[in-house]
Fold:
Amino acid sequence: MNRIALPVLLALFLASCQPAAGLTVSDAWARPGMAGGNSGAFFLIENPGEADTLLLAASDISQAVELHRTIMEGDVMQMQPQESVPVPAGETVAFQPGGLHVMFIGLKADLVPGDTFELVLTFEKAGEIVLQVEVRQP
Amino acid sequence: MERKFIWVTVIIMVVLAGATTILLLTQGPSYRGVLYEPPLPAYDFSLTAADGETVALHDFRGQVVLLYFGYTSCPDVCPTTLAEFRQVQAGLGVDAGRVQVIFITVDPERDTAERIQNYISAFDPSFIGLGGDLPALEAAWQAYGVFREVDETTVTAAGYLVTHSTRSYLVAPDGKLFLSYSYGTPADDILHDISLILEKGIGK
Structure:
């Protein structure tokens, strides 16, 4: 093994460790809401790479931000707070009405269609992803 | 022999075609919601509006009433349904005044009538939100088969959540409970049914 081959092999090896592409979050929107009330945000997480986990959602538009899942049993709706949300390798996880959503509790001001705000999602591996969320009627 | 066979076939076909026509003519229009058969008088609730006035179901005789039970802290299912009702209302055009959306709280501890009205006016200013005292609300929940339960175990910054049923109800202009819809029924389906009711003069 000569002096040139070793760095080349090392570089190739490191390159093969990189995921094919990074995790992306798109189509972020939130429902309108009134000051003191609640709202929900929705988006698509596409994960072409290795398995990851959504750990946290944060925003300064409300007193608290939580990850929730709506569960329907027959006609009855129940909300379940989620400590974290797994994002399996090669899969798309949809946050959408009637399912997973980010819940904003105690809005500091009215959310009106056309407004935008920042939402920071923290993933175990992909780290922080900052979203611009648009307020609109579904 | 062969001619006889042809005649028998022709007669069978004519009989079948006639039977199908009669069946189609005698069958009522088909609704996309779940039909109450027969439609029975809808429970005539008497609740409180934002201005403190008492509002009863019979105040809306002559109109189609879309009834939904929810709460203003509801993060997902209630706003989804109300956004659909907003689309229904917008799609009615000139018939908009012939339909009234009414939202009744399942969370009287936090939902004052005023808070409810603020909440649903954001969807459509014509919607009416109703609260009231517990016995009057309980009677309405029970009469419409609404399940609601304060979820004490789930820890959330929202204080508490209310687990509740999500069906909406359509009351015909004569005050009879006519149809119900499960969560997620498209606005187009509800519009279709309302148009049919108005067109056929159901409950007039």
